[in-house]
Amino acid sequence: MAIRKLAHPSLTVTDNRTGNTYELPITHNSVLATDIKKIKAQAGTNNDRPEDETDQGLRVYDPAYMNTAVVQSRITYINGQEGILRYRGYPIEQLVKKSNFLESAYLLMYGELPTTSQYSQWTDEIMHHTYIHSDIEAMFKSFRYDSHPMSMLTSAFATMGAFAPEANPSLQGQKLFTNAASGDLESLKILDKQILRIIGKAPTLAAASYRMRQGRPFNRPAQGLSYTGNFLYLLDNLSGYEYRPHPVLEKALDALFIIHADHEVNCSTATVLQVGSSLVDPYSVVSAGCAALYGPSHGGASESAIRMLMEIGSPENVPGFMAKVEKRERVLVGFGHRVYKNVDPRSTAIRELAEEVFAVTGRNKLLDTALTLAQYARESEFMRSRNLYPNVDFYSGLIYQAMGFPLDFYPVLFAVPRCVGWLAHWRQQMLNPSGVKIWRPRQLYLGEGERQYVEASERQANADSTVFDAPVEVSHGGDSKRNNLATYKDERGEIFKPRL
Ligand SMILES: CC(C)(COP(=O)(O)OP(=O)(O)OC[C@H]1O[C@@H](n2cnc3c(N)ncnc32)[C@H](O)[C@@H]1OP(=O)(O)O)[C@@H](O)C(=O)NCCC(=O)NCCS
Questions:
Q1: Residue 380 CA, distance from chain mean position
Q2: Which pLDDT score is estimated for 347?
């Protein structure tokens, strides 16, 4: 391929509807979607509908964001083809080996590895912000004992917002955080304080959701332990003295936290930025991030991977399961990634860690099943031709399982460190010198054109309608059955029968 060096790289396109030619500047190997909007044609000349808005400019259709850059970021770089993940330029493998979670968190948030004094101030501040208001503990107690911990955590972050009215732009003015972009120190102080609070309290909230499930009283944050050491204390401490977590488990959790701290504009981070663009408070932002993370295609995958391994049972059942995957009857959870079409570098970093943990916790049948499955997947033409390799969730699930965490706690173990990534992106968004524009995508409207209201007496059921075109009949519990046989009086004293 001949390479031309251009001072002003650009793309020349011809609109065959009009014969017009446009030159679109290329910056960082991208064109601006708003430049494409300049490409206009006369409406109604190419079988287009009024709803296509042809004369308002060409649109970019990108369902599921397959090729759309929505931010300019300096935080994390991923190269999916080559299996690269770097935080602020540092390869993840180096950070896992040499750094620790809070140091990497500082790096993600502020752009550089901290000096010794910056690090000690940062860790002191975070560990100082680990306590939660006792009324938030009461909120946890209002949940059913068997509630999913992610439901509790998502609610807890939103609730925390109610305890920080001074950090709420709806109450304090919508520029509360964005003023920081122009160097307003007060605004920056409020912004950074919420970051300390959220990172500090995340393990406390996560542990509260866990202790609720166990029916155990909540522990209060401990002094003098590391971030993950304190987290293990909050989760596990009973009534003994001088609790110290096992160093291998503490270190493994810390490394897993580094690996999970950020991953560019993934589903939950995109959610965080979408919600953040409305200038809502950071607690609501993080709560929205949790909601996105909870889904089985995202942070729920490590839990689903273990459920799948439990279903497979033992290594001899692996070939049968793989046959179903190759017939596309099943998905191999913990394999494949939207961005990594090569090895997921996080899974490489985690594999060694897994061995260290298994040496302490012992191996189990599930692990043998997992390793057999990985072996079969490596040799499968179906998997190789689609570039499907084990992702981070495959190994993290195995480590969590070996460490004895319940399955539904896995997404929580992902959400706690991911708060750092969410907040680093949120901070970058608030500090954008060009201000924060609300994220408002468009759609391609394919529905009915304009039509006139039809009176109820003149409406007829559509003979072509399918099961999707009206509500289906839903099932009701036994109490509805009994209620249907009962009679009630309404507010006017008249007798009515429930209609269900
Ligand atoms: C992560 C994931 C959602 C990415 O999806 P995606 O980038 O949209 O990839 P696609 O759905 O386009 O998949 C491409 C092909 O690989 C297949 N495929 C993708 N992931 C697969 C998996 N885990 N098992 C079996 N087949 C898979 C698809 O069926 C598709 O096959 P086709 O081309 O014959 O139709 C997907 O790989 C997946 O569901 N993985 C399992 C869940 C998981 O581990 N998620 C955690 C991610 S960190």
A1: 30
A2: 84
Regarding the beta carbon of 301 and ligand 1, being less than 6 Å apart is answered: yes
User: Where does residue 170 rank: exposed (0-12), middle (13-18), buried (19+ CB within 10 A)?
Assistant: middle
Q: What is the mean pLDDT of each run of 10 residues along the chain (500 residues)?
A: 84 97 97 97 93 96 95 96 94 95 98 98 98 96 95 98 97 97 98 98 98 94 96 94 94 96 97 98 98 88 89 95 95 88 83 89 86 91 91 88 94 97 98 97 96 97 92 88 85 80
- The answer as to whether 68 is a domain residue is no
Residue 251 Cβ < 6 Å to ligand 1: no
Same domain, 116 and 251: yes
Q: Which of 231, 227, 162, 235 is nearest to 196 (CA)?
A: 227
Residue 261 domain boundaries: 81-300+408-430
Ligand 1 atom 7: residue of nearest CA: 338
For residues 227 and 128, membership in a common domain is answered with yes
Q: How many alpha carbons lie under 13 Å from residue 254 in its C-beta half-sphere? A: 23
Residues taking part in catalysis: 337, 393
Let me know: does 368 contact 315? Beta carbons within 8 Å. yes
Q: Output the six-digit token pair for 71.
A: 């931010």
Amino acid letter for position 63: P
Phi/psi class of residue 90: alpha, beta or left (left: φ > 0; alpha: ψ in -120 to 50)?
Answer: beta
Cβ(377)–Cβ(336) below 8 Å: no
Residue type present at position 248: V
Ligand 1: does its nearest atom lie under 6 Å from the Cβ of 334?
A: yes
pLDDT recorded at residue 499: 67
Are 50 and 196 in the same domain? no
In 3D space, the residue among 335, 460, 442 whose CA is nearest the CA of residue 386 turns out to be 335
| Phi and psi angles of residue 246, each rounded to the nearest 5 degrees, phi first | -65, 130
